[in-house]
Amino acid sequence: MARSxxxxxxxxxxxxxxxxxxxxxxxxxxxxxxxxxxELRLHGTGRAWGSPFLDERTTLRGTARLxxxxxxxxxxxxxxxxxxRWEQAGVHPELLLATTGHTVLGRRLLRPAARWAxxxxxxxxxxxxxxxRVLLGALPRADRPLPARFDVLARAVERxxxxxxxxxxTPSGPWQLFxxxxxxxxxxxxxxxxxxxxxxxxxxxxxxxxxxxxxxxGSAYDAAQRVPDPAPGRAGEASPREHAGSRSG
Length: 249
Known about the structure:
This protein has 249 residues and is of the alpha+beta class. The chain has five helices and twelve strands. Helix 1 (2-24) packs parallel to helix 4. The N and C termini lie far apart (43 Å). The model is unreliable at 5-26 and 233-249 (pLDDT under 50).
């Protein structure tokens, strides 16, 4: 019965995302975003989680994409996202985080936000590390509020790198710091060559996506990404210059 329900949910959600992708001519969610160079400095928490990503002291390099989920224009709140892709042990793992709450209940719920920082970004869905369920998160460091506008974000990162503390927790345990992400300029758009993220196809070494919701989530990604992005100039995303000067997301 559980397998049948999971299959039905995957089919239904996949159909919804496929239709949404056709209607939006590409990404059904997070249509506009900015790319940054990302440096992940990992140091562990002092306890063994059973994953190199959580346990080892290392520096990894990759790309980050910050985006607005529904593409609503500022100052309207939106679900904000941080997508990370990096190189590790010959593969390119991915991690998707979105604005959530910080508490035991809140970390399992999406939360619309009107600013990139301060705020909490969480994985929402659990991973499994050495038989233990865990959630991942990121907490931006900012000395002042950073409104969720792309022009403001681009200028802020040009002045100084944006730092995000990387966190891990069991579903009901306290958050623990295990590293930091450093986002550096220049900010750039991926409208001409859209980057698609699928963390289920590109898992983090030693961290397995866990639970039926993760399986359902995978169908949504697959269905949406079967729809090709429009040709450059019709993607609905601004050019890098327009991103830096636009007041809309």
